[in-house]
Specification:
The protein contains 3 helices and no strands. It is an all-alpha fold. 8% of the residues are buried.
């Protein structure tokens, strides 16, 4: 975790993934790569201790 807090960008990506349903759609909407979306979701998962 980052100073005891999750990064808000990662939470935004997760929220958009829930709303849009695909990493490609999230990447398109946020103007980032699909790889970045995947990495941020994986990092959030690791922070939460889930897989």
């Amino acid at each position: 975790m980052n100073n005891g807090r999750m990064e808000t960008r990662r939470l935004l990506i997760l929220a958009e993934l829930s709303r849009l349903g695909s990493m490609r759609a999230v990447a398109d909407v946020l103007g980032i790569t699909t790889s970045t979306v995947s990495q941020q979701v994986a990092a959030l998962s690791a922070e939460m201790g889930t897989r």
